[in-house]
Write a structure and sequence with these properties.
By secondary structure, the chain is of the alpha/beta class. The chain contains 10 helices and 14 strands. Among the domains are: 61 residues, Dna Ligase, domain 1; 136 residues, ATPase, nucleotide binding domain (Nucleotidyltransferase, domain 5), CATH 3.30.420.
């Protein structure tokens, strides 16, 4: 899903997350983007995901507060679509000219997307020849409810912004986290608060996009229940001890391992799906980002589980910044993948 709404080159990326708002503005040519400004504003509750008019008003107010705090030099914005709201699929279509392909996709879209076509905004991109049938092409198909897009546009206009593009979290993540010169399959695993975004990227394009309803909140809840502690203490335990079996006699590990294994099961399904579709290819590495990527021993656990190299994601991989900002930016990196990817768009 890529909905360009203008041809602006002067814009910033805005990630409207469940726990915080994040903004990134870059400058320079697409191959040499330089970090100009960035900022994050925590959000309490679930107002950013709410359909209630009062919550949208509050979110617009928070966005204005963030813009003022960061000192952004433009009102043009590229904004995210949360993965929970976007349906994405890879489909095979007969080879034909662009006009006929567009008609064919629209005609068949109802059989692929979960919402009525009349209520959906759909978009597609040709990825290349199908790995299953050389007579077909591989198409990335996405859909999102029109009502959600319109509500988001209205909210941003209320914040005084002009929207130049709307893009799903997964697309933005793959742009910022995966090195620009990578030409082998990479998996991006963004473990957020409420869910985990999983994107397998190859040659700059997503080949599998999933939203898994397991995030750090799930893991913290498991710690609360099994250890009979409050949320604040559970968060401290999870992010201090993580999957360390030798910490607190392994009690934290024992409390959260079922939730971790639930996530591992979904990752395993995705790897098997990819390997079946692309029989001659294998995922080279898993890049872990998001708040839960800071959980001790989680990356090592994933690497041992699947026998694949695991790295911590760097939201600034394809961006230049002053050397004296290195420590500060790396400490924040796991929170800025989506906002940076949006800012890296070519327009």
């Amino acid at each position: 899903m890529n909905i360009p709404l203008g041809g602006q080159t002067d814009f910033f990326g805005l990630d409207i997350g469940t726990t915080a708002l994040r903004a990134v503005q870059l400058r320079g040519a697409s191959s040499a983007k330089v970090l100009e400004s960035y900022g994050m504003l925590p959000i309490e509750g679930t107002i950013t995901m709410s359909d209630a008019p009062a919550d949208r008003t509050k979110t617009a107010e928070k966005i204005r507060e963030l813009i003022s705090q960061v000192g952004l030099s433009t009102k043009n914005v590229a904004v995210n679509l949360p993965s929970q709201k976007v349906f994405t699929a890879i489909i095979d279509m007969d080879k034909m000219n662009d006009e006929d392909l567009a008609k064919s996709i629209r005609y068949q879209a109802d059989s692929f997307i979960p919402t009525p076509l009349a209520d959906s905004k759909i978009d597609w991109a040709i990825l290349g020849d199908s790995p299953k049938d050389p007579k077909k092409v591989e198409v990335l198909l996405s859909s999102v409810p029109v009502s959600f897009v319109e509500a988001r546009l209205q909210m941003l206009e209320a914040a005084g912004l002009s929207v130049v593009a709307i893009e799903p979290d997964g697309m933005a993540l793959s742009r910022s986290i995966v090195p620009a010169d990578a030409n082998t399959p990479q998996m991006v695993l963004d473990i957020g608060n409420l869910n985990t975004d999983l994107v397998i990227v190859m040659n700059g394009a997503p080949r599998l996009v999933r939203s898994i309803p397991t995030g750090s909140a799930t893991i913290v809840r498991a710690a609360m229940q099994h250890l009979s502690i409050d949320q604040s203490q559970a968060e401290q335990f999870v992010f201090k001890f993580g999957l360390g079996k030798d910490k607190l006699e392994g009690r934290v590990y024992a409390a959260i391992i079922d939730s971790i294994e639930s996530l591992m099961t979904e990752i395993d399904k995705s790897i098997k799906f990819f390997n079946e579709r692309y029989a001659t290819l294998r995922i080279e590495r898993i890049i872990v980002t998001g708040g839960a990527s800071a959980m001790p021993e989680l990356p090592l656990y994933i690497a041992n589980k699947f026998g694949i190299s695991v790295e911590i994601g760097n939201a600034w991989t394809n961006v230049s910044f002053p050397a004296d900002k290195q420590n500060e930016l790396m400490a924040l990196s796991n929170h800025f993948g989506v906002a940076t990817g949006l800012a890296e768009r070519s327009g």
